[in-house]
UniProtKB/TrEMBL annotation:
Basic and acidic residues biased stretches: 32-42
UniProt protein name: Redoxin domain-containing protein
Record-linked InterPro entries: AhpC/TSA, Thioredoxin-like_sf, Thioredoxin_domain
Stretches the record annotates as Disordered: 26-67
Length: 202
């Protein structure tokens, strides 16, 4: 595993490529975006996007212990969505996903079938993908979640999640925060729907 610093753009590219790793992962899995991925072929940098990246995080990290300040964008309206917009008094789950990831699609389908069990939880789907690819994700794979007041589909335009929350090594990545804003649990990759529901409501 490589040690040291890396660019946010390189991490984003690595995440897109390794979106659906089939390996099962346990809670508190350490992220390694470089594993199995050759960066020598990448010439793209943050400068080519006209932006200066913030200082990179270490490769190995735990998720942030409490919900940080952030600004994502609602996919359907384009309006900003910030920490202050999260309804209070309930668990909040951030699901970092890729719309083309089969495991992400399967998890959305399973959650959709169990909506009654998660209707009192804030569920925030986050992706760095083009909003045009995100907009049909829930209508296609999570019909019972689409349009529900406790479910938001959010575009991470500035890669804030991997800068402020966590850098997972595969999708979907789930982060459950309590009503107090503190992290309860997280995992990356597949889990059974029974385990997911237990984690969401605990």
């Amino acid at each position: 595993m490589m040690k040291g610093k890396f660019s946010i753009v390189a991490v984003a590219i690595a995440l897109m490529i390794s979106a659906c790793n089939n390996n099962d992962n346990s809670n508190n899995q350490v992220a390694d975006p470089h594993e199995g991925h050759d960066h020598s072929t990448h010439t793209e940098s943050a400068a080519t996007h006209g932006q200066t990246p913030p200082p990179a995080q270490p490769e190995e990290q735990d998720p942030t212990a409490s919900i940080p300040d952030f600004k994502f964008y609602k996919v359907k309206s384009g309006f900003g969505y910030e920490k202050k917009d999260i309804p209070s008094g309930k668990n909040t789950v951030f699901i970092l996903f890729d719309p083309s990831c089969g495991h992400c699609q399967q998890e959305a389908q399973a959650l959709s079938k169990n909506y009654d069990k998660i209707k009192d939880i804030n569920i925030l789907y986050i992706s760095m993908n083009d909003p045009g690819l995100m907009v049909n994700f829930l209508p296609s794979f999570g019909k019972e979640l689409d349009g529900k007041p406790n479910v938001e589909m959010l575009y991470d335009r500035n890669q804030e999640f991997i800068r402020k929350f966590h850098i997972p090594n595969m999708f979907p990545a789930n982060y459950v925060y309590g009503a107090d804003g503190n992290l309860k649990t997280h995992w990356v990759g597949e889990k059974s729907i029974e385990e997911i529901l237990t984690a969401f409501v605990q």
